[in-house]
Design goal:
Distance between the termini: 41 Å
Number of helices: 11
Largest sheet: 8 strands, mixed
Helix content: 25-40%
Strand content: 25-35%
Order of helices and strands: EHEHHEEEHEEEHEEHHEEEHEEHEHEEH
Length: 395
Amino acid sequence: MKRPLIVQKFGGTSVGSVERIHSVAEHVIRAKQTGNQVVVVVSAMSGETNRLVELAKQVDKVPNVRELDVLLSAGEQISMALLSMTLSKLGHAAISLTGGQARIMTNNNHNNATISHIDTSVIDEHLAQDKIVIVAGFQGINEVGDITTLGRGGSDTTAVTLAGVLNAQECQIFTDVDGVYSCDPRVVKNAQKLDSIDFPTMHEMAHKGAKVLHLPCVAYAWQNHVPLRVLSSFDAGEGTLVAGKEAKPGICGLAIQKQVVSLRICEEHVDVVDKQKQMLGVEESHWVTDSTYSHLLVKADCRDKLKLVIEDKIVTEQDVSLLTLVGSNAAEQASQYQQLLNLSDISVLHFCEDTHSITLVLEPGAIDKAANVLHDNYIIASGSVEREEKQVHLG
């Protein structure tokens, strides 16, 4: 009889040192000893991807995208090899595989690739030999064999896609917090851990900046009915189960995006700028309009790439932060948010409305205070979330 299979994914903080990798190995061994086959997906060690990006930018402010993928893929390979060595030393057969060796095939979109399919034959063969299989997250190869990467947080996508194609019993995402919170607990002191959250709300939270889960990971799990659980690498507990197709009423959570830039564009140039943005692959963006100009909101790390082609069309630029309230009726209360924040001397620069959320554009220095004010009034005061003691580990 075939044993059940579990996919476990460990983030950068979880594998941030040799000591922490040893703790990860103990998690993995416990899962195997309870009768499971285990496939492990690892991220790069905490801070490693940023270090590699900075090295690339010292060579070229806008690095060649193919070579950047080759460079960045090294981070996960370090983690997978160290974990495999640790498991072997502890007496458990293990093997590490790069994305290419695991036959994770992607499209050709360097730096933000999408998995097209996975040939599981190599992984299946190693599992049949009773090995723990460790796969480098965040990476794959395209049709010509070039290394590709899946974008920030792509190890989550690797894990949940593997869980889907391998028919895993559960995909467990181990991170530095003990579950999904109603807002980032490092910013909002009264943030509440959720025992469970539905897929539509989790998807919107991830789309609007909540970093506990990567957006494509949530989308894939939602579409393919993959049980998804967020757990702590440091503490025992049930974590947060992500399941359910129906969104709950009311405001369920807040998501924060920092390091965003607002580019003010004259109205006659909007169509041209929008086309250039799409050609450059700048997908995560918003347009907002006032009486005179349109404002393109993009991640700050896209600024240099965009300015290479549209600098003459930018009137001004401003660093901003985004605060999104997620809920089926969130957009109906925009004036209330503004009035409440005005009482705390916080100005809302713009609003961006979506079907299940509303995003407030704020000055960077106001984002933390605004998040606490709105969370206390719309999550805590309404009793939307049952309060639990939170445990947060900052790597």
